[in-house]
Amino acid sequence: EMKTGEGKTLTSVLPAYLNALSGQGVHIVTVNEYLATREAKGIIGDIFRFLGLSVGLNVKNNNLQEKKISYNADILYSTNSELGFDYLRDNMQTKADNLLMKKEYNYAILDEVDSILIDEGRTPLIISDEKRKSIKFYRDADRFVKNLKPQHYIIDAESQSIELTEEGIKKAELFFHMNNLYSPQNCNLLHCIKNALKAYFIMARNKDYLVEKDEVLIVDQFTGRILHGRQFSDG
Questions:
Q1: Which of 49, 82, 145, 171 would staple 196 via disulfide (CB 3.0–4.6 Å)?
Q2: Is beta strand 226-227 parallel, antiparallel or unpaired with respect to 215-219?
C-alpha cells in the first residue's frame, strides 16, 4: 500500500515486466481512459518498449482490429469497464476469429482498486445490440410526451418506473392515429414513448446525467462520478 505521490505507477513496472516475460500477457487496469492512454503512450509505456515488450491500449473507440492487436501485446492498458464489455462482446460472437480474449488470464494490476472493485463494482455492465430505431420514432415520442398531463401517466417511485394510464393510452392512440398502441407492429414506437416518459418525468438533468457537446454522460448514482463510455441500456 502506497500513498498518493509515492510512485505507485513507477513501482508497478517491476511486477508487470516480470510477469510479462512469460509471453502470457499482463493487464494493467485503470479507472478511466485518460490514465490508460497517458501510461501506454507516455514514459511508462516507453520503459516497457525499451525493455523489449509490446504495449497495447484498449479504449472504447478502438475498432475490432485495433483491439485484437492490443490484446495480443505483452502489456495491455485498459479501463475496467472496457475489459468487462469486451468480455460480454466475446460471449456474443459467432466466429472464433472475432474473439478478443484468446489468451488465458495470467496477471493483472489494478490501479485505484477500491474504485474499481467497490465503487465501479456496484454498476452493472449491460450490453445490447447496436440496431438503431428510426429517428422519427424518437421525435414523435418526444412531441407526444411533452403534452401529457399527470392523469396520463403513473409513476412507481420505488422501482423508478412509469407507465401510461388508460387515459394516456387512449391519448396516444389518438395522437398516433392507431387502434391499438400495444399491437406488435408498434413495439418500437412504444419503447420510444416509455423512454421519453422516463426522460421527462423520472430522470433529472445534472443529477442522473449530464449533456456535454451533444453527448449524454451518465452519472453514477452511488458515487456521483461521470461514467464515461457508458450508455443507458434501454437506449
A1: 145
A2: antiparallel
* pLDDT tens by residue, 36-63: 999 999 999 999 999 999 999 999 889 9
Sole residue written with cell 501506454: 40
Whether 3 is in a domain gets the answer: no
Residue 56: how many CA atoms within 13 Å on its side-chain side? 24
Q: Would you call 162 helix, strand, or coil by DSSP?
A: strand
Cell numbers at 105, concatenated: 488470464
pTM of the predicted structure, to 2 decimals: 0.60
105 in a structural domain? yes
Q: Which domain holds residue 222?
A: 204-234
The answer on 108 and 49 residing in a single domain is yes
- Tell me if 1 is assigned to some domain: no
- The domain that holds 162 is classified in CATH as 3.90.1440.10
Q: Which amino acid is at 85?
A: F
